[in-house]
Specification:
It is a single chain. The chain folds into three domains: 9-77, no CATH class; 80-170, Roll (Ubiquitin-like (UB roll)), CATH 3.10.20.10; 184-315, 3-Layer(aba) Sandwich (Cytidine Deaminase, domain 2), CATH 3.40.140.10. The longest helix has 15 residues, at 230-244. The strands form four sheets. A six-stranded mixed sheet has the order 12-11-13-14-15-16. Strands 7-8-5-6-9 form a five-stranded mixed sheet. Strands 1, 2, 3 and 4 form a four-stranded mixed sheet that branches. It is built from seven helices and 17 strands. The protein is of the alpha/beta class.
């Protein structure tokens, strides 16, 4: 079969004797380009559809294989530029999934130390433009003065939260030790970890976003936000918790990524006492966790996780 002439993605999947019925997302990991005119909006926020070609090799014998190609409609995670503008001062441009943007703006403002509480935000407007979305945020004069003093202007790409910082001292924010003394069982961490995938609707069909979940002490996921950037997902979660009045004092953060320093730092700014990541922590993450009195857990998977700092909050039962 020949590939469709109007398709822009061509993905080659070779034979793999160790894999039977391969997941569609695993079969579409090769680099590709989708033009804007071939993208179609869906009724699902943060998702667009595109026509792609899936190439499959059927191995009949060592010397005999057959190539097939199938044109399908794939679901792609949407990503857009979002400019955060405080009192008409452009402060940050981030690449973000265009969902929960009000929560993102609130959470970013809190975890970056721009505001101390949501009461410092007087107005918030979303302005959609041709090249992205502008979020106009009106904050108190005191907060705006502090923002101007910091003179921090960052342009963030996916997975990057400090590009454009004007000095090394601006990378780390001053964080106070988290005082929450909640106790989390290892069983609760396991329960939440195993429920994470079922609570990520965008990830389940695109395979391209991170999830940040807030869990109660029993491991029940109370709230979850998704984004192409792990720290963006966390900012959205913090903002939504603020909107819904969820306390960060009792419970834990579960994030579907590594525990980078900015994730732990943002968790500290939000007052989250326990951070659980499905992947590894970095050295700076460990340093921030120790400084902020955060219990940091990594490599959380079915039947196993590793406690790196402040294990006093973790219990067997």
């Amino acid at each position: 079969m020949k590939p469709s002439q109007n398709s822009n993605w061509a993905c080659w999947i070779g034979p793999n004797p160790d894999v039977g019925n391969m997941d569609k997302r695993q079969s579409l990991e090769n680099d590709a380009a989708v033009t804007a005119e071939d993208e179609q909006s869906t009724s699902e926020p943060g998702i667009v559809e595109a026509s792609v070609d899936v190439w499959t090799a059927h191995q009949h014998s060592a010397a005999d294989s057959q190539l097939d190609v199938q044109t399908i409609t794939d679901k792609i995670a949407e990503e857009t530029a979002v400019a955060l503008v405080y009192n008409d001062l452009s402060h940050a441009v981030m690449m973000v999934s265009p969902t929960d943007l009000e929560a993102f703006a609130i959470g970013f403002s809190l975890t970056e130390g721009i505001i101390e509480s949501s009461n410092d935000i007087y107005d918030l407007q979303l302005i959609h433009g041709a090249v992205g979305i502008e979020v106009k945020i009106s904050v108190s004069n005191q907060c705006f003065a502090g923002l101007k003093d910091r003179r921090r202007s960052l342009t963030g790409r996916t997975g990057c939260g400090i590009c454009g910082a004007e000095s090394l001292q601006q990378i780390r924010l001053p964080v106070k030790p988290v005082t929450g003394d909640c106790v989390i069982s290892h069983a609760a961490i396991q329960h939440a970890t195993q429920a994470l995938a079922d609570n990520q609707p965008i990830q389940s069909v695109t395979g391209a976003v991170h999830g940040a979940a807030w869990c109660d002490p029993d491991g029940t996921i109370l709230q979850l936000c998704e984004d192409v950037g792990r720290h963006n997902a966390l900012d959205k979660l913090v903002g939504r918790m603020c909107q819904e009045g969820l306390s960060a004092a009792a419970g834990f953060l579960l994030i579907s990524s590594r525990a980078s320093y900015e994730v732990v730092q943002k968790a500290a700014m939000a007052g989250m006492p326990v951070v659980v990541a499905v992947s590894a922590p970095t050295t700076m993450a460990l340093e921030v966790a120790q400084q902020a009195n955060i219990s940091l857990v990594g490599f959380s998977s079915a039947g196993r996780h590793v406690v790196y700092t402040n294990s006093q909050r973790l219990t067997q039962v």
